[in-house]
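Technical annex B. To support the medicinal chemistry partners, we prepared a structural model of the target in complex with S-adenosyl-L-homocysteine, based solely on the information shown next.
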Amino acid sequence: MKFFIVTYGCQMNVHESEKIAGILEKLGYECGQSREEADIIVFNTCAIREGAEDRVLGNVGALKRLKKKNKNLIIAVCGCMTQKSKTAEYLLSTFPFIDIVIGTFNIPKLGDYIEAVKKGRQLELWEEGDIDEVLPYKRTSGENAWVNIMQGCNNFCTYCIVPYVKGREKSRQEENILAEVRAILSEGKYKKITLLGQNVNSYGKDLVPQVSFAKLLHDICKIEGDFVVSFMTSHPKDLTDDVIDAVANEEKIEKYIHLPAQSGNNRILRLMNRKYTREDYIKIIDKIKAKIPNCRLTSDFIVGFPTETEEEFEDTMSLVRYVRYDNIFAFMYSPREGTVASKMDGQVDDKVKHERVNKLLALEKELQKEVK
Ligand code: SAH
Ligand code: SF4
Ligand code: F3S
């Protein structure tokens, strides 16, 4: 019996797929090389932009052919897209050959659902559960091991679907994270530990007693062994001095910070509910550059947020010119149903969004040439 997993979205989803693979191996499945030879195909989906959802729908649709050939093939769809009830219903009604639709919190129960399907049932269940600790992961990223330190997000940036599909922030207990890192290192084949969370800087605020992200970093670095520690993603509003100092002073921490700015304009940042200004952001960047010479910096930007004018977009361009990132990711704003920004007046034309994203990426290319 073979499984095949198709993963969309962020690193957290890639890691989630390692969990799914772990569950399926425990059930006796082996990792297959293609959809054609699989007995179960799992789509682990992303809902961050419309384009991500469209890709999933197209690829799920194409499975009809395989299901016709193999009546026993089990098709499961999980991940951020399925957590939206409208989308889950749409999936089930449009693609009657899908066997299982499960939300983001129910992956640990995948085995139960597979059993149920064998008796002919199609399921769609979700509820917010506790952050689980016991699952084996089938790690797939070579010398890098992903370690989840928290799930969910409390920030409600007005454009973003994540808080709605991943729930509120929940941090793992520090001792469980340390135990996992020790176990990973004792296997001897991993050289890098990458800590994952939508907003790692707010790690531990929900724990009793509270634990700071900086303390977690220091404690991980104390573990013996030859390894590098990295983390993502940082939210500028929560990137505290003690974390910058930890990156500066701990030899084991990679000198790299992904610090999404989203926009360089204060009015847009306010509308996005990012809770920092352009000036706050620049102050943090200056601090990082002063304390960590040669620190690699990357960022995400959204262009064409509702009501963004050409002048306001130019503020994003000038921020990119100022910081001189090692790389940037630029996205055209994509309205997500249920979010505050999707209901705002002044949605920007697709043509304008295209122009702006191209302009921003062209600028980044120019700057990268200059650096070399
Ligand atoms: N938690 C991370 C980001 C997760 S999503 C953070 O806050 O930095 C990754 C990136 O997708 C975001 O940084 C943002 O630039 C982009 N993004 C999120 N929602 C979007 C939307 N509705 N339209 C376009 N881009 C979006
Ligand atoms: Fe989305 Fe903002 Fe949370 Fe990042 S911090 S996941 S952009 S709501
Ligand atoms: Fe996408 Fe969910 Fe990650 S929406 S970006 S897979 S948290």
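Notes passed to the chemistry partners:
Residues 48-49, 159-160, 162, 198-199, 233, 235, 260, 262, 300, 302, 331, 333-334, 336 surround S-adenosyl-L-homocysteine (ligand 1) (CB under 6 Å).
The chain is about 40% helix and 15% strand.
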